[in-house]
TrEMBL record, chain A:
<keyword id="KW-1278">Translocase</keyword>
<keyword id="KW-0560">Oxidoreductase</keyword>
<dbReference type="Pfam" id="PF00420">
    <property type="entry name" value="Oxidored_q2"/>
</dbReference>
<dbReference type="GO" id="GO:0042773">
    <property type="term" value="P:ATP synthesis coupled electron transport"/>
</dbReference>
<comment type="function">
    <text>NDH-1 shuttles electrons from NADH, via FMN and iron-sulfur (Fe-S) centers, to quinones in the respiratory chain. The immediate electron acceptor for the enzyme in this species is believed to be a menaquinone. Couples the redox reaction to proton translocation (for every two electrons transferred, four hydrogen ions are translocated across the cytoplasmic membrane), and thus conserves the redox energy in a proton gradient.</text>
</comment>
<dbReference type="GO" id="GO:0048038">
    <property type="term" value="F:quinone binding"/>
</dbReference>
<dbReference type="GO" id="GO:0005886">
    <property type="term" value="C:plasma membrane"/>
</dbReference>
<dbReference type="InterPro" id="IPR039428">
    <property type="entry name" value="NUOK/Mnh_C1-like"/>
</dbReference>
<feature type="transmembrane region" description="Helical">
    <location>
        <begin position="6"/>
        <end position="22"/>
    </location>
</feature>
UniProtKB/TrEMBL annotation, chain B:
<feature type="transmembrane region" description="Helical">
    <location>
        <begin position="267"/>
        <end position="288"/>
    </location>
</feature>
<feature type="transmembrane region" description="Helical">
    <location>
        <begin position="326"/>
        <end position="346"/>
    </location>
</feature>
<feature type="transmembrane region" description="Helical">
    <location>
        <begin position="12"/>
        <end position="31"/>
    </location>
</feature>
<comment type="subunit">
    <text>NDH-1 is composed of 14 different subunits. Subunits NuoA, H, J, K, L, M, N constitute the membrane sector of the complex.</text>
</comment>
<feature type="transmembrane region" description="Helical">
    <location>
        <begin position="186"/>
        <end position="210"/>
    </location>
</feature>
<keyword id="KW-1133">Transmembrane helix</keyword>
<dbReference type="GO" id="GO:0048038">
    <property type="term" value="F:quinone binding"/>
</dbReference>
<feature type="transmembrane region" description="Helical">
    <location>
        <begin position="358"/>
        <end position="379"/>
    </location>
</feature>
<keyword id="KW-0560">Oxidoreductase</keyword>
Amino acid sequence: MTTHYLVLSALLFAIGGVGVLVRRNAIVVFMCVELMLNACNLAFVTFARQNGNLDGQLIAFFVMIVAAAEVVIGLAIIVTIFRTRRSASVDDASLLKY
Amino acid sequence: MNGTIEAPTIEYALLAPMLVVFGAAIVGVLVEAFAPRYLRSAIHLPLTLLSLAGAFALAVWQALKGVPTKPAAMGAVAVDGPALFIWGTILVLAFVSVLLIKDEEHFVGSAAALPGSAEEEQSLVERAAHTEVYPLLLFAVGGMLLFPAANDLLVAFVALEVMSLPLYLLCGLARRRRLLSQEAAVKYFLLGAFSSAFFLYGTALLYGYAGSVDLAKINLALGSVGGQDTLLYIGAAMLGVGLLFKIGAAPFQAWKPDVYQGSPTPITALMASGTLVAAFGALLRVFWVGLGGLDWDWRPVFYGVAILTMVVGAILAITQTDIKRMLAYSSIAHGGFLLVGVIATGSAAQNTAALSGLLFYLVAYGFTTVGAFAVVTMVRDAGGEAWHLSRWAGLGKRSPLLAGTFAFFLLAFAGIPLTSGFFGKYAVFQAAVSGGALPLVIVGVVASAVAAFFYVRVIVLMFFSDPAADGPSVVLPSRGTAAVVGIAALATVVLGVFPQPLLDLAHSAAQSLFVR
């Protein structure tokens, strides 16, 4: 019965991945990355159930902590560039190219 | 579920180099919190340098005492010959980069002040400085040490993040051209987080396949678990995406020129040397140990990636007009040359040859690239470092010593004999030929020739064209920067003329291969 959870996890990961590629606002892009990390967590917990060991559930805690640290760093960086440019669009930041 | 958790045994002595670096980073955070502003830099600099030197001494002591034959910390961290060699390399390169970073004029006084605002003026008047740079750097170095030694995929993921998160912040702290610097930080952060999500999902799928994230157990499961090949192949591919991104291999190379250009140059030097070494160590461990039984499947993929990386790096470098972007594309091409060695697996002797070649190459390239970026910090315009290549015209007539040193670094990148780059390429390509990857080596040699073209173009520009009337000035280097250029030039010469001691060391480090 764990298949449904794995399919849901894959769907969430795909939604996150597509979101990163098509959305323009840096905050939304970042939320999509977080969605991908949560999809990973769901997969870990499901596989823990399937494999009958606790590793996957423990890993999910590690991933949450790493995701929290990532939010701190990410919001700091995005807020800084928003204050400079008055825009959080990833298309506007295009000085570095070629 | 069987739910008992045993208390782990941890070999603290083996992990001591890492613990020293992390400990010093935490002390650095406390210094930020409690020491008065005027004392901070005076405390941070010796603390950082001593901890890196101490960690290096501990790693050497461990190597002399004998290399363990079993992974430490319940199989989570493998302190083996290659890991100790890579630790030594990263610690020396980080030490050299700190000498470059200690010139605080590279970093913004107050990152929160808007560019061009009164607050920014104020921070310049007050000579404010972000001394947080040092603890951040130590955390990043600690992550770099853990990443290549991680013997299970969870530890590898955590190490990847510990290494990357401080670097994202450091990228955005340049004092001049702050818009570029902030843009580099955003791009590096979003793309880096995206790629680590792939790494993590790959880990999840391999955990589902093997029932463990331990590399040795995954390798065991390759032979015994049947009917779950989809999980295995998609998982391995996603792990590969995460690792190849960190290396900057094509088609995941797009971030590298932007980030290398926008970041403060000393941080670029650290990323181009330390991060590359750490990421290659981790790539080798994951694919040789964890997925070693799957090499018939991943080898063709790496074959294609290596060719693409060498070609993209060498050809796009020709079209660059910015010195830092050119060095970034050169770094991509070198990543491709190193990937040639990753494919050259086979018998144990073959693996040792390939691994020792790679280890030598990483040391040689790391020193040369730190030296090259150190030279870039010294050529200045009114608005900061002079990045545009046209500004470098005639530099050889203005300051022959600096231009000569830079030309020497470029020749080492090109792999001219009597430089360290030659023996690095030779060792890797020789291993690849004996491993049966001759076509790849031919592509590599052609790409080297293309790369040599643009290195020589810069040399010609520096020495055979007339300097512009308002050309950039070469600042008198601080003691730190001068030491970095000196050490890098010395290493490039010595490894080019007497490579044998380091080749022997790399060989003995690679002798026992990775522990399982």
